[in-house]
Amino acid sequence: MPLNPGTGAGAAVARERVVPRLERLLAKVSSHRKVRHAIVGAAAIDGSWEWSAAAGEARPDGTPMGTATPWFLASVTKLYIASVVLRLSEQGRLDLNAPISEYLPDGLRRGLHGRAGVDRTAEITATHLLAHATGLPDSLVEHPKGGRSLVDQIQEADLAFSFAAAIGRVRGLDAHFAPSDLDGERPRVRYSDTNYQLLMLIAEQVSGLAIGALHRRLLFEPLGLRHTWFPGDAPLDPAGPPATPWLGDWPLQERPLALRSIGDLYATTADVLRFGRALFTGEAFADPATAGLMHRRFRRFGFPRSAAAIASPAWPIEYGLGMMRFALSRPMAAGRRLPPLIGHTGSTASWLWYSPPLGLVLAGTADQATKAAFPFRAIPPALRGLDR
Predict the structure, then answer these.
(1) 238 preceded by a cis bond (ω within 30 of 0)
(2) Phi and psi of 147, rounded to 5°?
(3) Cβ neighbours, 10 Å, residue 122
(4) What does the pLDDT look like over 227-249, one tens digit per residue?
(5) Which residue(s) pair with 55 in the sheet?
(6) Quick one: which of 118, 251, 286, 363 is 20 to 30 A from 330 by CA?
(7) 199-210: per-residue pLDDT in tens?
């Protein structure tokens, strides 16, 4: 089932109550050292109002950040990938519970998941991938002892790689656990970009289309996302140059080949909000009830126990199928009552959140990888008390 679209009789919280909070949030985020620009947007889930504002310089040349400036979604892209995978499932082209080895090219059907001398690649399903329940190492940040991670190599020099090449890097690395029984009492989940690289590769295999063309056909065109695109592609309508994402003082757009290979989207705030409304109401699917698969059950990530895990989403974040939930109890929130949020964040402090109690969709970014925790630390407090 799609989520209840709002509070009371379906009405979203009033614009005049939300906007002053978000204006203060924008000022707070953009005032942080290392944050060159920020953008914050919100929309009522019922479509009754929408708002956005921006601050700072979009690019090193001093171009002002505007509300129509596209920005890098980072792992918010996983919501789009999961939606496309579920659309392929609706069409009968992909069985979410079949072994992924049925869909992978020959060179990747064995040897990806090794633990205690046992190859469990054939036990992994698309549902495992969507839920981060495979135990697979992260191809971007993990590496053999004495080796270098792909992220380390990218920081040294720009480089291009295919999904298959990135995925192949996990061969020889021990998996963290066997593919979880997602219907069991305590299924294990651990965030890994490898899972979504595999989903993108599978989506291309079953559709016969490149990932950008597939998203255009199943999401961008049907939903009117005219200013959303993958690096190396073009949006349906010209959107202008995107804002620069940063890692400290390093502009990530100095690595165009790597950004294209990683495969995360660019979009305008209006497009991200439009996608969010379509996703959380079920409009993004042929059957609106399909949206319910993404948030039917959330499973909590464990505590990070390695450098790679510390750099990725972990406890107390929960994960469904392509969707996060961030809901702190009052003791965890120092006695404050904070509204629960579902959606996704990205490593560059990007976010697409939905608050079911408020009927509110929120999107934005600080475009700074050193501030990746902003969406968790700053947004819930900004919404505190709006459900009263």
Answers:
(1) no
(2) -95, -175
(3) 15
(4) 999 999 999 999 899 999 999 99
(5) 38
(6) 363
(7) 999 999 999 999
